[in-house]
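<goal> How does this chain fold?
<sample>
Here is the protein in question

***
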Amino acid sequence: MNDIRMSALKIDKLLSASIYIPFTDRLGDGKTQFTYPARNYIGGVNGKDGMGLVPALVGTLEGTTIFVASFDPDNQAYKELGGGVYSQGVNKVILPNPISGPGVEPAAFDSTFTTTTRPKYTEHTFHALINQPTILNNGFCQRNMYYFKETFTNPIMRNAEVTLYGPPAGAGPTSLAGIYKSDWNGGYSATGQTLGFNLQTCREAAAQFGPAAKV
């Protein structure tokens, strides 16, 4: 992804990945949908993992805990393994210091996936999931609207197998750790545009949700 706010710091491109729990009942009304970010990761491309440090600090101060990470591949969203199988992996980074030098913790999560002509979910389902307001760790919520309407969107439906690893690098709660098999996992690859908003109360964020992002 490209973040124009980072240009002054000479941070060009960044890679990010998140583990979200959708349909979280933040308001306790049994119907208003939010996503809870179990873990968020960010890092630079081409081995420059430390480029994610400033965005991670800023995001954490604003209510979204973000960890600096190393990505595989480290210059694009995913890579082809051959035979129509693709993969991506994320490792939480221990930042370098003069004594121990750089280091990387065990894998946070990884996935393998294939293209399918018989998807388990529709594009609309993924748009609706990713556009639920996000719960922050400071008592507020935030709308980050994702739009997939451009000529370069190139949507592709997938079947995927995902492995979430436990603390400290992985999915957070130990109960989330495990292998999620492709026989019931759906996947979606696309290029989209993101429009972020200021922090709001969770009730306000839900009320001002942009329905066009679901399409």
